[in-house]
Amino acid sequence: MTGNEKVASCPVCEAPVLAGDIYCEACGHPMGAPTCASCGAGAVDAEGYCERCGLRQPTGRDHAETVLDNGAAAVTDRGLRRSRNEDAMALMASGDTIVAVVCDGVGSSPRADEASAVAVETAATALARGASQQEAFDLAGRAVAKLATSVYDAPACTYVAAVVEPDRITLGWAGDTRAYSLPDGGLLTEDDAIETGEITAWLGADAEGVTLHVRTFTPHAPGLLLVCSDGLWRYLDGYAFPSAGTPLEMAREMLRHALDSGGQDNVTIALIPLGEARE
């Protein structure tokens, strides 16, 4: 270093670095890294964490909302305790059919956010083009399994899909993501889980003998179909579902309830009008 060279400091270790240096010679931090949204240091690593303050940087998945022309709406949120949103949701219309898919990344698996994202995209696209619940589930399962490098590095997620037609609803699920009918709050799915809460079915390269549950029924009164992750349903005991507002407003109110109750997990909520409520 000569006296004429401009000197800056490393945003992580604060050692002096020269203008034009690619890496800090003291700690190896790459210079020119993205800036942290919290502390402002140019120290965000490839995983999205700030190497100075530790904050994981916000992403488009931290909070997202979708609304269809018929009013069907979905909201997903990172919650208050998790560093990232490992839930994923898809909500789309195909003619007069509405398709909703919600997947919850299994927290004990690697890259669970990737598993849920690829599962909802694959399954929703298949269902929207007319595939059966089983076909969509199988395609989603293969897509998630391809993410694994071995059974010891196997991203995984739970799964629930709803196909809402004018005169019938078909649900398919594996794991503990759920569907309810509103306004009565009746549970329409059964968890694949043992008494202590551990799930027994999921999508992933390490999943064995998983059977998709399928239920088809006709709604007999106007109302809403709720599809959600455990970030909501763990706070539903004694909860009075909102009775007024648009599906998006109601979904936001449910999200506030989950966050006000602790927000321990990612939260995903999809609400689809049924019967005359579809008009």
UniProtKB/TrEMBL annotation:
Residues 71-274 form the PPM-type phosphatase domain. It comes from the Bacteria. It holds the Pfam family PP2C_2. SMART domains: PP2C_SIG, PP2Cc. InterPro entries: PPM-type-like_dom_sf, PPM-type_phosphatase-like_dom. This is Serine/threonine protein phosphatase PrpC.
